[in-house]
Amino acid sequence: MDILSGKTRKNLEENPQVAIAVEALQEFKAYQLKGTATLFTSGEIFDMALKVAKRHEENRRIHYAKEQIGEPKWLRKIHQRKPKAAVLIEVEEIYSTIGSNE
């Protein structure tokens, strides 16, 4: 989800090639995913992303309540922003970034 927009969104519109780092810390694995991003500001994919964001927000609030911790004000301001776009990435390449034999 794009909630901040600005420079990152402009960059994706000009060059949709992306690389994302993903870590599975409990499994001691890390990967780099490379692919092409597509932005959606309406439609089915955007609506699905809004639903995922809403579930994430609900889970985050439950976690904070369960752990009895307060959310920092700066983070709360970010979470209150309305998503402007969904970013769908078609993954074209996957690389292990930890020296394994996979």
Search tags:
single chain, 102 residues, alpha+beta, Pnp Oxidase, Chain A, 3-stranded antiparallel sheet, 3 helices, 30% strand
Could you give the order of the helices and strands?
Answer: HEEHHE
CATH superfamily: Electron Transport, Fmn-binding Protein, Chain A
> What fraction of residues sit in β-strands?
25-35%
Largest sheet: 3 strands, antiparallel
- Report the helical percentage: 25-40%
Say how many strands there are. Answer: 3
The value of Rg in angstroms is: 16 Å
Uncertain spans, ≥5 residues at pLDDT below 50?
none
Name of the top-level CATH class: Mainly Beta
- Mean pLDDT metric: 85
Number of discrete domains: 1
- The secondary-structure class comes to alpha+beta
Q: Gap between N and C termini, in Å?
A: 30 Å
Shape: globular
Write a brief structural summary.
By secondary structure, this protein is of the alpha+beta class. Helices cover 38% and strands 30% of the residues.
Give the topology, please.
Layout lengths: L6 H8 L2 E8 L4 E12 L3 H24 L5 H7 L6 E11 L6
Antiparallel strand pairs: 1-2, 2-3
What does this structure look like?
The chain has a single domain (about 5-95), classed as Pnp Oxidase, Chain A. Helices cover about 40% and strands about 30% of the residues. It is built from three helices and three strands; from the N terminus they run H-E-E-H-H-E. It has helices at about 5-15, 45-65, 75-80, and strands spanning about 15-25, 30-40, 85-95. A three-stranded antiparallel β-sheet has the order 1-2-3. The mean pLDDT is about 85.
